[in-house]
Amino acid sequence: MKTIWIIVATLISLTLSTLSYAEDEDALTIITKAFDLKRVDDQISKLTFNFSTPDKKEQKVIYTMVWKNTYDKDGYDTKTMFFTEFPPDKKGIAYLGWLRPAGSKTKDDEWIYLPGLRMTRRIAHRDHDHSHDDDEFGNSILKREHIEPRPPHLDTHKLIAERSLNGGMYYVIASTPKQHHGHNAHEQHNSTQSPGKVIHWIDKQTFRTKHMQFFDQHNQQTLDMEISWTQLGDYWLWQTVTAIDPRNNAKTVLEISNTRINTGLKDRIFSKRSLEKGSGHLN
Fold first, then answer.
1. What is the C-alpha to C-alpha distance for residues 83 and 133, in angstroms, rounded to an integer?
2. d(CA 189, CA 187)
3. Rounded to two decimals, what is the model's pTM?
4. DSSP string, the chain
5. Could you tell me which residues come within 8 angstroms of residue 117 by beta carbon, excluding any fewer than 6 positions away?
6. Domain with 69 in it
């Protein structure tokens, strides 16, 4: 259950403003610019996940997400809350995370509110190392390593093509993990295994990522991920993320809607008391 909240908290950090750069850049520069794109100050959204496989009935999970960029204040990169809205038997379960920057050796601070027990408890970090088929996110093929932006210095990047797609031009860049980095601080902090190669399709004008292909250590493709964007004011935000596992055709679709940005959320909102009050007090 904890995995989903980490994934979407990371995902929101990819919200960016409208930017443009010259096209004649090497692969490391392109990846660095995509990684460094500006984030909004805060965001409130509805997140709808749909999970499907050829042999199982489609499942749905809905959250209200509240997110704030804390700009490394007191050592925290972001603060976030997630309130479960659906399915009905999970409604009211809520998560609070004070999250450290990628690469930090200091652990995140996280809590979960269980309405059935009327109790808020701290999440132990070992809880993130387990996924259960009976939780509401157990069937997702979207994992933290698919969403979380990797600092460019961890990988070797190669520009392999410049291609058109749906009328746009894209840099196609292959990123391969550097040797012997699997035990560095970034990997320890995030409790993820070293990934294989990732191919990014990055818009040549805006540096928004349109498409990503993930491969394992044996160069077998494990995930195909498509991202659609929507504009809100001067900002572009993820609207839909579609992930397919080509090995078994399992599919996860994330839809982000009802979004409000830069509302001036205060740090004091991100508290255990807010978890207990539920998402209704944010309207």
1. 21
2. 5
3. 0.81
4. -HHHHHHHHHHHTT-EE-----S---HHHHHHHHHTPPPPSEEEEEEEEEEEETTEEEEEEEEEEEEEEEEEETTEEEEEEEEEEESGGGTT-EEEEEEPPTT-SSPPEEEEEETTTTEEEEPPGGGGG---TTSTTTT----HHHHSPPPGGGEEEEEEEEEEETTEEEEEEEEEEPTT-TTSHHHHHHT-PPP--EEEEEETTT--EEEEEEE-TTS-EEEEEEEEEEEETTEEEEEEEEEEETTTTEEEEEEEEEEEE-----GGGSSHHHHHH-GGGG-
5. none
6. 2-282
pLDDT in tens, 90-115: 999 999 999 988 667 899 999 999 99
Cα→Cα distances 79→71, 216, 233, 255, 258, Å: 10, 31, 23, 21, 20
Interacting residues of 25 by C-beta distance below 8 A, sequence separation 6+: 33
Between CA 253 and CA 243 the distance in angstroms is 6
- Torsion sign over Cα 176, 100, 187, 214: negative
Q: What is the CATH number of the domain that holds 154?
A: 2.50.20.10
Structural domain count, the chain: 1
Each residue of 226-238: b (16+ CB within 10 Å) or e?
ebebeeeeebbbb
Over residues 213-270, the pLDDT tens digits come to 999 989 999 999 999 999 998 888 999 999 999 999 999 999 999 999 999 999 999 9
Q: For residues 3 and 144, is the Cβ–Cβ distance under 8 A?
A: yes
What is the spatial distance between Cα 198 and Cα 169, in angstroms, rounded to a whole number?
Answer: 19
DSSP 237-257: EEEEEEEEETTTTEEEEEEEE
